[in-house]
Amino acid sequence: MAYRVIGTSAARADAWEKVRGRPIYAGDVAMPGMLHGRIVRSPYASARIARIDTRAARALPGVAAVLTAQDVPRNELRMELPGRMAEATAGAVLATQPVLAADRVNFQGEPVAAIAAETEEIAAEAADLVEVEYEELPGVYDPLVALEPGAPEVHEGGNVLRRWHLRAGDVTEGFRRAAVVVEHTYRTPFVDHVYLETETGLGWIDAEGVLTLRVSTQVLEHFRDVAEILQLPHGRVRLEGAYLGGGFGGKEDVTVECLLGLLVWKTRRPVRLVFSREESFIGHGKRHPYVMRYRTGATREGALTALEAELISDSGAYAALSPWVLFYSLVTATGPYRVPHVKVDATTVYTNNPVASAYRCFGSIQTCLAYEGQMDALAAALGMDPLALREKNFLRKGDTLATGQVMETEPMIAQTMRQAWAGLGERRAPGGPIRVGRAVAASFTPYGRMCWTRDSASAWVGMELDGTAVVRCAAPDVGGGQTASLCAITAEVLGLDTDRVVAVGRDSHFTPRAGTTTATRQLLMSGNAVLAAAREVRRHLVAEAAALLEAAPGDIELADGRAFVRGAPDRAVPMAGVVRAATANGRPVQALEKYDAPWAPTIDPVTGQGKAFNDYTFGSHALEVEIDEETGRTRVSRLVACFDAGLVINRASAEGQLEGGAVQGLGYALMEEIALENGVSRNPHLLDYKVPTSLDAPAIETILIESGHGLGPFGAKGLGEPAMTPSIAAVANAVSNAVGARMTELPITAERVLAALRSTT
Amino acid sequence: MTLTFVLNGHPCTAEAPAHWTVLDLLRDGLSLTGTKDGCGEGVCGTCTVLADGRPIRACLVLAAHVRGRALVTVEGLETDGRLDPLQTAFAERGAAQCGFCTPGMLLAAKALLTEDPAPTAQEVREALSGNLCRCTGYAKIVEAVLAAAPGRS
């Protein structure tokens, strides 16, 4: 089918505002009488709070409030998506966190007091005047140590937060049938999202007494959390979503919302709260470090027979979304392969390290490092071509995942791998001290929530009297073009140019609830909701136009902002005329629709069997690295990303996801790590925590396959998270290829490369 | 203190406390919020503006520095309602995703193209290497700068 708008690289409406530097972010608006917020945080990772004295801070002129735990009406933030997550928890998950620590702190950066003052400077001075007396307590900073008997308990009841298990076939039998078995342990560090905009919000109380927060958040539904901690009716708290200066999962959990809401509610004045870069580093959820022990077996011909894995993730001091991140790891543990005999045990553990939670790929990137490392290790052990080995074992239509889920459409994984590899072109000849390595990594990543969560999104589309369309949908835009895609879908269906479709913002109370911009779900969920609403609006328009043009509705077409009779383009009426006629006849053209994701029962908590996710995005990276033998420095010289997008909504946006995901992954693979010493960060600054610059990023080729197999609008899949999944495995495999030893620990620093080079000579 | 300088082509007089940075002056004093604060310590480049044509980190430079100089911020790239070719190229080529690094990127690129109207891709990468972007992987940003380079068309 030919589309007019869908699939083009049309410039996004928000981009025209962004290149002008116009205020669209949460921190760009000030209000009269606005106070400035500041948070006092624990410098210790594990300590008892013996005493807090706020008198000096409160006495400072210009200070409006100094709040501590006793000022929070219900000092307990619950880490749960509305009513749905508990269903799959076999045991009790302690998933609460105080807004302000009362008598004990469990991680460095934990909020202890919240201040509001007339200026930023006064707020900072007041923070220095808050006296907190800490008594350091023994802590635990390694998840393996935390599992040992007698380890200090972070919370009562032990350090195991959640275990998941996956069982398929008989893994003992599977290894008996294997001719070769490879075994490696893979390790990944804590890493930070490093969005350029730190956590930011502005709050005020509006005319109806509703606490209103304009926040940089991926989750407008956090208005409920604010209402709960303030013990207000949910309807009394409203969240307005600003455009985000990046999210990547780091603005999925509550960031400023509760602290900001508390300050506004107590002072009854507008308050702005912006985390400093250092606070951003120590104050929000990180990506989980993993230790992954993998054993994989295959026949002499290269058919996988068994996979056994033990996954341990460091949840840090609180639960946040750790159980669910770990669940994604469980489901993706085998990779996109047919493995008849599987045993996976996964555990997430409390420590006094930073809280770990959602970060792009949500647990499915660590496992990719392991399963793709294993595939290259197996290929080496078998003397097989790594691509041929993968191809022999890739999931095909009708195959089942280890969870028992049947692949209902053809996974395009082999195509993505072959095309990515072909894109690399000729191998660069090594020269001087430069070693060249190249490799592929194939991956699969869920898009959309777990099936049992009954995910749903709503959207409203309506026509104005001038023939323009309005889209109302509370889907936060993290910068990936979420809003523009919803407008493009509407424009496509209604035969309008994109500049005749306007989205009016994202708001918990004024726009229909669309759910979170997380889990690569917005195109699937809100995209389908908007598609349904736009189609309903189209039905109204066609019926009205048919009456006006004295034709059968089946003969009416909508294009170029008008309605006309098919085959007789002169018999036409402008869209504005159709809308005016409908409105005059008492039939305003508008529709509110919702999309419900297909449901499946909760997976079996003992065996992991069941349909965990409705669908997956398949994709591969192929890349080449150059390694300086003398310094150990690794440079990615070329990268090709190939994904099955299902269908491309906006080409530039889709390519942008692939490019950005790849480079974020290169940082994770080669340079990024939160350096902790007993839970305390040694590098909470961009000077010491390095992310890729334009000089680190390679030339990237992107290839988008359009199978039409997706569950999203017009057959689209999601790309946001999948775009990053194969990155770290591809780098590790390429470096391994160059040095002749398996790189199993991130980041792959020059020191580690040199050590590997020495081990092989 | 009173500061007299040229802001985006127009004479400007502003009052600023002595401890203010250029970033404070722009965002808080003059309500020009296009210039962003990403780290406050001169690393991320989101606060890049031009002073006498040279890129500076507005978060590190004291406001007093602008005295007598010509300052250009993202709000001043447009002339007579016409966007700078860099702005158009960024929007049309998907170089702005979340957009938070965009103002600083645009000004770093503007300084480069003023000095060298026909840079190579590698020269663009070098000129932008002090401006972090976490969304785009830099690919479309480099493409957009090359497309807007007057000497390359």
Q: How many helical elements of chain A?
A: 18
What is the 3D shape of chain A? globular
Q: Strands of the biggest beta sheet of chain B: in what spatial order?
A: 2-1-5-3-4
- Share of helical residues of chain B: 25-40%
Main sheet characteristics of chain A:
8 strands, mixed
Which strands sit side by side, in order, in the main sheet of chain A? Answer: 3-7-1-14-11-12-13-22
Helical content class of chain A = 25-40%
Given helix and strand content, the structural type of chain B is alpha+beta
* Strand proportion of chain B: 15-25%
Based on CA atoms alone, the radius of gyration of chain A comes out at: 27 Å
The count of helical stretches of chain B stands at: 5
The CATH superfamily of the largest domain in chain B is identified as Beta-grasp domain
What top-tier CATH class of the largest domain in chain B fits best?
Alpha Beta
SSE arrangement of chain B, N to C: EEHEEEHHHH
Number of spatially distinct domains of chain B: 2
Radius of gyration of chain B: 15 Å
Label the overall shape of chain B: globular
The CATH topology of the largest domain in chain A: Aldehyde Oxidoreductase, domain 4
Question: Which CATH architecture of the largest domain in chain A would you pick?
Answer: 2-Layer Sandwich
The number of E-state strands of chain B comes to 5
Give me the secondary-structure topology.
The complex is a heterodimer of chains A (761) and B (153).
Chain A: H1 13-18, E1 35-41, E2 47-53, H2 55-59, E3 63-67, E4 77-78, E5 96-97, E6 104-105, E7 111-117, H3 120-129, E8 131-136, H4 143-146, E9 160-168, H5 171-176, E10 180-188, E11 200-205, E12 211-215, H6 223-230, E13 237-241, H7 257-267, E14 271-274, H8 277-283, E15 290-298, E16 304-316, H9 322-332, E17 341-350, H10 366-382, H11 386-393, H12 413-424, E18 434-446, E19 456-463, E20 469-472, H13 482-494, E21 501-503, E22 506-507, H14 522-549, E23 556-559, E24 562-565, E25 568-574, H15 575-584, E26 590-596, E27 616-628, E28 634-644, H16 651-670, E29 676-677, E30 680-681, E31 699-705, H17 727-739, H18 750-759
Parallel strand pairs in A: 1-14, 12-13, 16-17, 20-21, 28-31
Antiparallel strand pairs in A: 1-7, 2-6, 2-8, 3-7, 4-5, 9-17, 10-15, 11-12, 11-14, 13-22, 15-16, 18-27, 19-20, 19-26, 23-24, 24-25, 27-28, 29-30
Helix pairs in contact in A: 6-7, 10-17, 13-14, 14-15, 16-17
Chain B: E1 2-7, E2 10-15, H1 22-29, E3 48-51, E4 54-57, E5 70-72, H2 85-92, H3 102-115, H4 121-127, H5 139-148
Parallel strand pairs in B: 1-5
Antiparallel strand pairs in B: 1-2, 3-4, 3-5
